[in-house]
Amino acid sequence: MADYLGGIAMAPIGISRCVHPLIMPYASTNPYRGHRYPTEIIRHAVWLYFRVALSFRDIEELLAARGIVVTYEAVRQWCLEFGQTFAKEIRRRRPRPGDTWFLDEVFITINGERHYLWRAVDQELLGPSARRSC
Q: How far apart are CA 86 and CA 49, in angstroms?
C-alpha cells in the first residue's frame, strides 16, 4: 500500500502517516477533553437533567447557587453531546422487574359510586403503573 522511496515509507496521497504529537495528536479517550468546565460539573449537570428531570434553566440556577456560572445553552449542548451515554447508564442500572407478579386490587367508594382499582406488582412491590377500572 505504501511506496518506498530511499528507505522512507511514503503513504498514498490523502492518508497521513504523521505520528508527531504536535502535528497530529493521538485521539483522547476522555470525551470531556477540550471543554471549558471540569468533568465533574458537566457530568453533574447532565445527570440532573436526565435523572431528576429538571429543565436547562433550573440546572443553570442550581449551579449558580453553588457559584458555577454556566448558561442554560451550555447545559443543553452538554445534554445533546453526553446525554445518550447517561441515559443508557441509567437504564442499565434501573432495577429489573422480578419473575413473580401479583395483582394488587381494592374496591373503593367515591361519592356513592363503587370503583375497582388494581395494579400489577412484582415480588419487590415495583409496578409499572396504577390502573383504574370503572
A: 10
User: In this structure, what C-alpha cell is assigned to residue 122?
Assistant: 412484582
- Please give the backbone phi and psi of residue 132, each rounded to the nearest 5 degrees, phi first: -125, 130
Give me the residue spans of the domains in the chain. Answer: 3-93, 101-133
DSSP secondary structure letters along 79-132:
HHHHHHHHHHHHHHHSPPP-S-EEEEEEEEEETTEEEEEEEEEETTS--S-EEE
Cβ contacts of residue 66 below 8 Å, gap of 6+? none
Which pLDDT tens digit goes with each residue over 28-48?
Answer: 577 777 778 888 899 899 989
On whether the pTM is more than 0.70, the answer is no
Per the CB < 8 A criterion, the answer to whether 105 and 116 are in contact is yes
